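Anyone opening a protein record will find just a pair of labelled lines. The record below illustrates this layout.
***
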Amino acid sequence: MHTPLLPSRTIPADPARQALVVLRTVFTVAPIVFGLDKATNLLTDWPRYLAPGIDGIAPGTAQQAMYAVGVGEVVAGVAVTAVPRFGAWLVAAWLAGIIVDLATIPGYDDVALRDLGLLGAAVALARLAARYAPDHRVHPGPAA
């Protein structure tokens, strides 16, 4: 008799549920990692991604603005874990703000376009969560 490596309840068999798990994982981990990195700038020099017009109206320095952005990203990542139906929309809105910011910086159109793709994936997560995680938990069992 063949025994699967992982119990069936670990990985849902339904492809849409699998997509939900993948997107939920990505949109939990990425915002938290990038948010925490706003304090260290290990991955990149985050203040250079703040448009001059926004930097001009934000209180404090660009780095201080990035600290606030980092906190927002960590909150968004935690929200995706805790309440994916809400958290995914929060991430989508956050990405929309990033796209507007980047669209006003010459030479960052490629990054803004990438973030547009991420926004689409966040919306897909929100829609999947509305169907498969209506009570804020991912249930790996068969669909009703």
Remarks:
- The first helix runs from residue 15 to 37.
- The mean pLDDT is 89.
- The chain has one domain: 15-129.
